[in-house]
Design a protein that fits this description.
The protein has about 625 residues and is α+β, with helices and mostly antiparallel strands. It contains 9 helices and 28 strands.
C-alpha cells in the first residue's frame, strides 16, 4: 500500500507515476510462470507414501498451469492440510507436516521475495517432510441401539486394530447392511463418532443405530414390460409376499433380472412406509432393451492379419427371451500366415430357462473357410449345448455336435465326418470380463469324438483340455496386477492323422506362446510347416501397470511345449518375452502387444504384433 502526502500537483503526479510503474513491474514479475520440483521424503510405509503423493496438488497440478510465487506458497499451504488429512485417515493423529521451498519455511517472510528474485527459467525445489507420530489403534467400540450380537460383529471392527478411517467408515455401511439383511427395511445408522485419546494413542468409536421394525414383503410385482412375455422374467423371481425383508436377496434378484439381455436396466423400488397389511410392497421396474442390435468388431495381428466381424441379434424372438444371432466375418486379411482371406458364417439360437430357470439350450450352425499355410479347411458344424448355472461363478455344459470338413495339409487332402459330445466346467469369479484385476477363471472340457466316415471311419478319440488364470492386485488399487495363466491339453486314442489338423494342438499366436508365428511353435513336417501335436502345455506370467488415468503398460513371459505323443510336458520348449501398451476406454482397454521368440524355429518371424480389445487373457 502507498501513502501520499500532498505537496503540489506536479510532485503528486510524479509519485503516482513511479508507484504505478513499480506496481505494474511487480504484477508482471509475479505472473511469470515458476517451475518447481516436489520431493516427499519417505515415511517408511510405501502405501502411505503413495497416498500422500495422490493427495498432493503440488504434484497433480505441476506443469498443468502457470503458477507465480505467491500461488506456489498458497498451494503448498493447501497441501499441508491435505497431508494432515491423509495421515489422520491412516491413524496418525499427531502427525506433523513441514514444507520448505528453496530451503525456506512457508512462514519465512523472506520466502516471497526470494522467489520473486529467481532468474527466468529457474526451478524452485519443494521438500515435504513428514513426522507421522504414533499410530493410533481402536479402543472402545460402542453401538448404541437395539442390535443383535451378529449385527454388532458385522462392523468388522475390533479393539486394538489400527484406527484406519476408511475401516471405521466402512463399519457404518456394514452395520446398516446387516440390519437390512435381517429384515429392518427402515434401519438407519448415523455416521460414527470418534474420540481420540492422545495419552494412550487410542480412538474410541461409537455408532448410533435405529433398526426400526422387522418387516415382511408385500406384493412383489414387475412393471415396465412391453414386448416381453411376463411369464418369462416372473419365473425368475423367487421372492414372494410374506417373506421376511432381506436387502441382500432383493439385490441378488435385481441383478438376476438386470442380467437378462431383454432388459437395459432393472431397479428395485419400495415405498417409505408399510401398506395397510403392515407389509412392504416391492416393485422391480424394468426398462426393456432395444429388440434388435447390430455389432461390429475387429482385431489385428501380424500373423493372422485383420479379422472383421459384423453381427445382427434379435434379443426376444418369441417374447420369452429367445435370442437369434447371425454373424459374418472376414478372417486372415493380410496375415503373414494366411495364403488368402477366409470367412466364417454362423447362426446361434438360444432358449433361456429351458426346462428349469438356471438352464439354457443353444443351437449353432457354422460354415467356415481357412487358407492357412499350415492347412486349408472347409468345414460345416452343427452343435447343440445345454448350460446350467450352478452358482454365480460356476457353470457346467454338455453338448452334441456334427462336423463335416475337408482339410488339405502337407500336399494331402482328407475328408472327416465326426460326432462329438463335449462336457465342460467353467469357473469365473473375476471382477471384469475385459480387464480383470482379481479373481480366478478356469475351464475344463472333455470331448469324446467318433468318426462317422472319411479318413478313418472307425476312429475314436478323446480330447481333454483345461486352462486357468488368476489375477493378483499387488497394491490393492487395481493399478498393478500380476496375471498368471496355465493350460494343458491331451488327445487319447488316435494317431496323429486320425485327428483333423484343426483339432490338434499348436503353439504360437495370441492365444499362447506369443512371439512365435501362428501355430509355428509345434512339431513340423520335413518342409518346415507345422504338423500339430497330440499334447501341449503352456504358461504365462504378465505384469500389468496402469499409468495415469488412461494409459498402461505390460510385460510378459510365455513358455510352452507341443508334443507329437499324447504326453504333456514333453517335447521342445518354446519361451518368448514381450511388452505391451494399453489405452483404457469406457468399454475396455485397447491392447497392443509386441513379442519376441527366444528359440529359433525354422520359417518363423523375428517378432509378432497383436492388437485387440481387452486383455489377452
Amino acid at each position: 500500500m502507498f501513502f501520499f502526502v500532498k505537496k503540489n500537483q506536479k510532485t503528486f503526479a510524479l509519485q503516482l507515476f513511479v508507484a504505478l510503474a513499480l506496481l505494474a513491474a511487480m504484477i508482471v514479475r509475479a505472473a511469470d510462470p515458476l517451475a518447481y520440483t516436489v520431493e516427499i521424503k519417505p515415511t517408511g510405509r510405501a502405501d502411505l507414501d503413495a497416498l500422500l503423493r495422490q493427495s498432493s496438488t503440488l504434484i497433480s497440478l505441476r506443469g498443468k498451469a502457470a503458477i507465480g510465487p505467491f500461488a506456489l506458497i498458497a498451494r503448498a499451504r493447501q497441501d499441508i492440510v491435505r497431508f494432515q488429512s491423509a495421515l489422520e485417515s491412516q491413524g496418525y493423529y499427531l502427525g506433523k507436516v513441514t514444507i520448505s521451498i528453496l530451503g525456506h519455511d512457508l512462514d519465512d517472510p523472506a520466502l516471497l521475495a526470494t522467489l520473486d528474485a529467481l532468474p527466468a527459467k529457474a526451478t524452485a525445489p519443494v521438500v515435504v517432510s513428514i513426522d507421522t507420530g504414533p499410530l493410533y489403534h481402536l479402543g472402545k467400540i460402542d453401538i448404541i441401539g437395539e442390535v443383535t450380537d451378529s449385527e454388532r460383529a458385522a462392523t468388522g471392527l475390533k479393539p486394538g486394530q489400527p484406527a484406519i478411517a476408511a475401516d471405521v467408515l466402512a463399519g457404518q455401511g456394514k452395520l446398516l447392511k446387516a440390519l437390512k439383511h435381517d429384515g429392518h427395511a427402515f434401519a438407519k445408522v448415523a455416521p460414527p463418532e470418534a474420540i481420540a485419546h492422545d495419552d494412550t494413542h487410542t480412538l474410541d468409536v461409537s455408532f448410533h443405530a435405529d433398526p426400526g421394525p422387522r418387516v415382511d414383503l408385500g406384493p412383489v410385482t414387475l412393471k415396465g414390460l412391453k414386448m416381453v412375455n411376463p411369464n418369462f422374467p416372473e419365473g425368475l423371481i423367487t421372492l414372494k409376499q410374506g417373506m421376511p425383508y432381506d436387502a441382500d436377496q432383493i439385490e441378488q434378484q435385481r441383478q438376476l433380472l438386470a442380467g437378462l439381455p431383454v432388459f437395459a436396466g432393472v431397479q428395485a423400488e419400495t415405498p417409505d412406509q408399510l401398506d395397510a397389511n403392515g407389509q412392504l410392497p416391492l416393485d422391480f421396474a424394468a426398462t426393456e432393451a432395444p429388440r434388435h442390435a447390430i455389432n461390429f468388431s475387429g482385431s489385428y495381428s501380424t500373423d493372422l492379419g485383420a479379422d472383421l466381424t459384423a453381427s445382427w441379434t434379435d434379443r426376444n424372438v418369441f417374447g420369452n427371451g429367445e435370442s437369434l444371432t447371425l454373424s459374418a466375418s472376414a478372417d486372415e486379411i493380410g496375415g503373414l500366415d494366411a495364403q488368402y482371406p477366409g470367412y466364417n458364417l454362423s447362426g446361434t439360437y438360444t432358449i433361456p430357462q429351458w426346462q428349469r430357470i438356471d438352464q439354457t439350450l443353444s443351437f449353432n450352425v457354422t460354415a467356415l473357410q481357412q487358407y492357412l499355410y499350415t492347412y486349408t479347411q472347409t468345414a460345416l458344424y452343427a452343435t447343440s449345448t445345454v448350460t446350467r448355472q450352478i452358482t454365480p461363478a460356476l457353470s457346467v455344459n454338455i453338448g452334441a455336435g456334427l462336423e463335416q470338413e475337408v482339410i488339405s495339409q502337407n500336399n494331402s487332402s482328407f475328408f472327416y465326418a465326426l460326432f462329438s459330445t463335449p462336457v465342460g466346467l467353467k469357473w469365473d469369479n473375476t471382477n471384469n470380463p475385459l480387464e480383470p484385476t482379481k479373481g480366478v477363471r478356469a475351464t475344463a472340457q472333455v470331448t469324446p469324438t467318433a468318426s462317422l466316415g472319411g479318413y478313418d471311419g472307425h476312429a475314436f478319440f478323446v480330447i481333454g483340455q483345461g486352462q486357468a488364470s488368476t489375477y493378483i492386485d499387488l497394491l490393492g488399487n487395481g493399478r498393478t496386477v500380476l496375471a498368471l495363466r496355465a493350460m494343458v491339453g491331451d488327445i487319447w486314442g488316435a494317431s496323429e492323422f486320425q485327428v483333423p489338423a484343426d483339432q490338434r494342438f499348436y503353439g504360437g499366436g495370441s492365444a499362447n506362446m506369443r512371439g512365435y508365428r501362428y501355430q509355428w511353435a509345434s512339431p513340423q513336417f520335413a518342409d518346415q510347416l507345422p504338423a500339430g501335436g497330440l499334447a501341449m502345455d503352456a504358461g504365462t506370467v504378465e505384469l500389468r501397470q496402469r499409468i495415469g488415468s488412461n494409459w498402461g503398460a505390460a510385460t510378459f513371459f510365455d513358455v510352452g511345449q507341443v508334443s507329437e505323443q499324447p504326453a504333456p510336458f514333453t517335447g521342445q520348449t518354446y519361451p518368448s518375452v514381450g511388452v505391451g501398451v494399453r489405452y483404457f476406454t469406457g468399454f475396455g482397454p485397447i491392447r497392443v502387444d509386441f513379442a519376441v521368440p527366444l528359440v529359433q524355429v525354422p520359417g518363423d518371424f523375428p517378432f509378432e504384433i497383436y492388437v485387440g480389445l481387452g486383455e489377452a487373457f
